[in-house]
Amino acid sequence: MNKLATQLNDTLGAAADFLSAAGKRMYFPYGGILGQGAEAKSCEINATIGMAFEEDGSPLVMDCFKKGLNLDKKAFLYAGSFGIPKLREQWKEMEFKKNPSLKGKAFSNPVVTNALTHGIRICAELFADKKDTLVCPDLFWDNYELVFQEAVGCKVEHFNTFKKGAFDVVAMKAALLAPGEKKILILNFPNNPTGYTATLEDAKKIVSTVKAAAAKGKKIVVICDDAYFGLVYEKGIHEESLFAEFSDLHKNVLAVKLDGTTKEDYVWGLRVGFISFAFKGATADQLKALEAKAAGNVRSCISNASSIGQHLAIQAFADPGYAAQKREKYAVLKKRYHQIRVILKTHPEYAKAFEVMPFNSGYFMCVKPIGVDAEKVRRQLIEKYSTGTIMLSGLIRLAFSTIPTAKLAKLFQNVADAVSDLRA
Ligand SMILES: Cc1ncc(COP(=O)(O)O)c(C=O)c1O
């Protein structure tokens, strides 16, 4: 049992006997990303937040979403558990455009979720029993554990994420082949926290490894968490969702795609996401059955996702300015990414203070302090340098999505200085 859960149960005393086993396991992750973010709230440089801000510090939001706020009255009607049909059609069409490899492949219509976290929970409830294992890289978004381990009670097994600057496919293979008939593999590219997306070479190996494990009889549900889809800043990176590859890979593989507006359309509070399914040889009826399973889960939990959010998305996607505005916002993040590359190149001395983890995409990048404890570095950064960062698995995560380009140099200098303070 997590010690935060134990503390809550101790506080409840005899009242904890009212809780179910899942209720007893549940806790609020105060010490994780959210708690560390709260500690950095008043920092001058705050690189903790998983959102994006303009160069002037205002939220990075596209006009096509903002201008729809004066919606028609019908936006207050129920949206239905599957989601508004028009929005589902629009999103499916967009999934094909963004992933040309999906052409000719069968996959379900997307079911609308209350954004991606909800999609993750639906997956856990539809696919994970107590005896099953979630297989997940050891650099991962910490909410996966809260959902799969605490809420649903399945096992979580982490594998090493990087080896020699690339995705550690050998470690993933060992985790997939470990005892246990059904494995739920979660892959998240661009990744939180590392900002890494599989290269073309990694992607080939990942797909062939899953296929080989399936051929050995493992039943594998592959969840593609595509929250940061499209935010890739280098060449030679696998830009499409791996869902396209998994959708018809092997009869023992069921592919799930989780995607949505939150990160890629910069509307974190809108709460509009999607879940789609595919498997080799799936008939139209089988795909519809999976949609009904997902919608049934939605109905049993939240009834339906926000109609207002869905109406705003419908309008924004149909807006003639949508594509150009999205490119413009992407360019803001890409510029910061390249500025970081310049900073790291022009400061070779930083290599003595921290190791730069592989990154090529997304909202974040991570550094590993050398010779000092990462949590101590995080604290020193807050106390002496008014700089907020997130410490995860011995790494310092830097959200460049929130930091104006002009402040990036200072951010990295502060990290290097904090490391050298602690060494002194
Ligand atoms: C990898 C990853 N997946 C999913 C989510 C959840 O996104 P949402 O806000 O849409 O629930 C996040 C949010 O930080 C994330 O980093």
Please describe what this structure looks like.
- With 424 residues, this protein is of the alpha/beta class.
- The protein folds into 2 domains: 31-50 and 323-423, Alpha-Beta Complex (Aspartate Aminotransferase, domain 1); 72-318, Aspartate Aminotransferase, domain 2.
- It has helices spanning 3-12, 21-25, 33-39, 63-66, 85-98, 116-127, 143-151, 169-177, 200-215, 243-246, 261-264, 284-301, 307-318, 322-346, 350-353, 374-385, 405-423, and strands at 45-46, 111-113, 133-137, 155-159, 162-163, 166-167, 182-188, 219-225, 253-260, 273-279, 354-356, 364-369, 387-388, 390-392, 395-399.
- The strands form 4 sheets. The chain has a 7-stranded mixed sheet with strand order 2-10-9-8-7-3-4, sandwiched between helices.
- Helix 9 (200-215) links the parallel strand 7 and strand 8 (219-225).
- Helix 6 runs parallel beside helix 7 and helix 8 runs parallel beside helix 9 (200-215).
- The longest helix is centred in the last third of the chain and has 25 residues, at 322-346.
- It is globular, with a radius of gyration of 22 Å.
- The mean pLDDT is 97.
- It binds pyridoxal-5'-phosphate.
The largest beta-sheet arranges its strands as 2-10-9-8-7-3-4
Quick one: how many beta strands?
15
CATH class term of the largest domain: Alpha Beta
- What's the average pLDDT? 97
User: CATH superfamily name of the largest domain?
Assistant: Type I PLP-dependent aspartate aminotransferase-like (Major domain)
**Helix count from the secondary structure assignment:** 17
The 3D shape can be described as globular
CATH topology name of the largest domain: Aspartate Aminotransferase, domain 2
Question: What's the Cα radius of gyration?
Answer: 22 Å
